[in-house]
Design goal:
By secondary structure, the protein is an alpha/beta fold. It has 2 domains: 2-42, no CATH class; 48-263, HUPs (Rossmann fold). It has 10 helices and 5 strands; from the N terminus they run ααβαβαβααβααβαα. The chain has helices at residues 2-6, 16-43, 59-70, 88-100, 132-135, 147-162, 184-196, 199-202, 218-227, 252-263; strands at residues 50-54, 74-81, 104-109, 166-168, 208-210. Strands 3-2-1-4-5 form a 5-stranded parallel β-sheet, with helices on both faces. Helix 4 (88-100) links the parallel strand 2 and strand 3. The longest helix has 28 residues, at 16-43. The chain starts with a helix and ends in an 11-residue tail after the last helix.
């Protein structure tokens, strides 16, 4: 209708008041349409583009979150207060989630000290000053029994509630301490489980478990994260920090982290005890 009216010569068949008001009316209409479109784009993001990210507060999970955001996912971060030796990684997860402006960050209390069995959940010494061949052979006492299985199961439940079909986890099978739940076989098996064990999976939703760091070295992970703007000063990696949160610099996690930064020719912004 308006297009036809605009095709006429000025003054032909149009009351003067309408000719004067039309540009203002059109501008207001276009603005309302634009605002409505923006609102819809923010609130009606397709559920298939939502993802649940396991966010521990460490270097790897922060990088996995950045990769998910780069790939266009609306990110929902999930952390666990599982009775670990310290709360510094929980604080780090909060800082990372806030800096990344995730859609939501949930911290689930799940006290695995009830079982123990790990230097991270029981009064057991954390190994220090281990050589690379020691770290890559055998399963160390810092392994928390079935931790990634439990965490991914909870993440899967939240994803089903959110209508999300993607999970991200920052596991790594290259520079890691021999954990069985960091291997590609585990990720593939859990993805199959996710599609068998959920109502959404049975009804045709295809769940994917993304492990974008699984074949990267620590140096590759850090390089990728820096290219995506990750602020690694917000992260925490140490298994056995001082009471003020200063990393020990000697546990497996600190050793691998320091090696990754050194391989990139840059210094870690964290201050180590040694």
């Amino acid at each position: 209708m308006w297009r036809g009216a605009r095709s006429r010569k000025s003054g032909e068949g149009e009351p003067r008041a309408l000719r004067l008001r039309y540009p203002r009316f059109l501008a207001a209409l276009e603005w309302r349409c634009l605002a409505f479109g923006l609102a819809m784009s923010r609130t009606a993001m397709p559920a298939s583009r939502r993802a649940v990210i396991l966010l521990s507060g460490g270097l790897d999970s922060a990088t996995a979150l950045a990769i998910a955001q780069r790939d266009g996912f609306e990110c929902f971060a999930l952390s666990f207060d599982y009775g670990q030796r310290h709360r510094f990684e929980i604080d780090a997860a909060k800082r990372i989630a806030e800096a990344a402006r995730v859609a939501q960050h949930v911290i689930v209390p799940l006290d695995l000290r009830a079982f123990g069995g790990s230097a991270l959940t029981a009064d057991i010494d954390v190994p220090k000053d281990r050589a690379e061949d020691e770290m890559s052979s055998g399963i160390p006492i810092t392994y928390v029994p079935a931790r990634n299985t439990v965490f991914l199961a909870v993440a899967l439940g939240w994803a089903e509630v959110l209508g999300a079909s993607d999970l991200f986890v920052g596991v790594n099978a290259v520079d890691y301490s021999g954990y069985p739940d960091c291997r590609p076989e585990f990720i593939e098996a859990f993805e199959r489980l996710a599609n068998l064990a959920t109502k959404a999976g049975v009804e045709g939703v295809r769940y994917r478990v993304h492990a974008p760091l699984i074949a990267m070295t620590k140096a590759d992970i850090i390089r990728t994260g820096l290219s995506l703007g990750v602020d690694y000063s917000l992260t925490h990696s140490c298994y056995d920090p001082l009471p003020d949160g200063t990393p020990c610099g000697r546990c497996d996690s600190c050793t691998l982290r320091r090696k990754g930064f050194a391989a990139n020719g840059i210094s870690d912004l964290l201050r180590y005890r040694t």
